[in-house]
Hints:
The complex is a heterodimer of chains A (172) and B (338).
Chain A: H1 5-20, H2 27-47, H3 50-73, H4 79-91, H5 99-122, H6 133-147, H7 160-171
Helix pairs in contact in A: 1-2, 3-4, 3-5, 3-6, 4-5
Chain B: H1 3-13, E1 18-27, E2 35-45, E3 48-58, H2 69-79, E4 89-93, E5 103-107, H3 116-121, H4 123-126, H5 129-145, H6 165-180, H7 186-197, E6 207-209, E7 218-220, E8 226-229, E9 236-238, H8 240-248, H9 266-277, H10 283-309, H11 316-322, H12 325-336
Antiparallel strand pairs in B: 1-2, 2-3, 3-5, 4-5, 6-9, 7-8
Helix pairs in contact in B: 5-9, 6-7, 6-10, 7-10, 7-12, 8-10, 10-11, 10-12
Amino acid sequence: MRPTGVEGLRAIQAAVAGVMTPxxxxxxxxxxxTVVGMMIESLAAEWDTEVETLVSDNKRxxxxxxxxxxxxxxxxxxxxxxxxxxGVVGQGGDAGLALSALTFENARLMGGxxxxxxxxxxAQGTPEAEPLAAARASTYRYLKEAAxxxxxxxxxSGFREKIxxxxxxxxx
Amino acid sequence: xxxxxxxxxxxxxIPGAQEIAVEGLYRIPGGQSRETWSFDARWxxxxxxxxxxxxLRRDPDASVLVSDRDLEFRVxxxxxxxxxxxxxMYWLEPEESWLDRPFCLMARIDGCEANPTNVLMSPxxxxxxxxxxxxxxxxLAKIHAADWQALGLDFLRKPPSEDACGxxxxxxxxxxxxxxxxxxxxxxxxxxRWLRKNPPMPAQRIVLVHADYRTGNFLAxxxxxxxxxxxxxxxxxxxxxxxxxxxxxxxxRWLGNDDIGGLMSRETFYRRYEEQSGFRIDDDSVRxxxxxxxxxxxxxxxxxxxxxxxxxxxxxxxxxxxxxxRRLELEIMDLMGV
Lengths: 172, 338
């Protein structure tokens, strides 16, 4: 159905910027209006692709956790973290395509990464760390790719040059 | 209507005042941890008319951080005596009956700009940017030189020793993350581990740390003079390089390049600060404190977002901030070198 979600958001954005904002008379109201505009920009940047991104992300996270599981499997002291990672991967069924369910699933899988990084980094400086290095690097690669997604107000202020460079580097 | 209630309060505080009129009340944008309002008051006192501009800082319904209004008031009152430009503080009012929530009143400093976009982009400030950069640096050195014991600021949170400044902040903010996080935070957790493994060099001296010292938190006059340092709610005692790391953090490099605070190069900032303060800048320590700065900001955003999600505030800003932590995570990972 047209207008699509993104087109609808752009209509709201245009009304806020073109009709409502010029009528505002206080700095506080203007700031609130600017925030609404930025919030819409942030939503519009991901609206069309968010389900696809989350489905793909969750699949990738499961693959990454499998890589982690394999790396941990060779470590005699990793029993508890192996059990936790197994638990995270094993819990998930089909999350469906609802954004809320996919988001919840994503957070759950991220919990597995958090636990792995803790184990891998606590082991740094010991012989146990070396077999985990590749999985750790893959984890940070994923986290960096996630960190450059979407639109942020930082992209037009402090991170203006950095975000362009980071995206170019990660897509190379 | 706040105006008549403010007038009643002024009458309570200024016993000799008569015919008190409060006008021009408006809420100032920004300041997510306190509501900030400006107004003009006029009254008759001892046969003459007194006119004064006020700033009212009132506790919000919910905040991006839990901060102590008494602390901010007492520090601003004291630091002004050390020659640091701050607004004159009038009254701190904990009683909620006056204006629904606790608040404080201070003098308004007119003719100045705090908004970083205006300070850095407005033609009236282009020509004075070098002066602002110098003053920004010199005032920070002055804050760090303040004799906090003589000023009666020994009630502030203080690390147990010079080499504990880093870990004290790490513990403080990790506890906030434990309390506020609604989802796993692998990057922030990794950053706390990195900080514990890579502590800064011991503080050269324990000083008064502003803890939010950046472009956006000073009042700049078009003459190039900084007339007020604002937003002291996170202030504590600690390592002077903590303020250097915060001031250098990328979120405050408003022009999107590497200029610190949009004002000057890092080299210029370091050189002048070292000259003015007598402290030595250590690159690894500043990196530590820049990571702390990005973590703090991310946690402040998460705290605000949680307030919105749990219905303690309806402010769109709080919700919006929560959608902006990813860039901070990117910066943290790059600073950690992972």
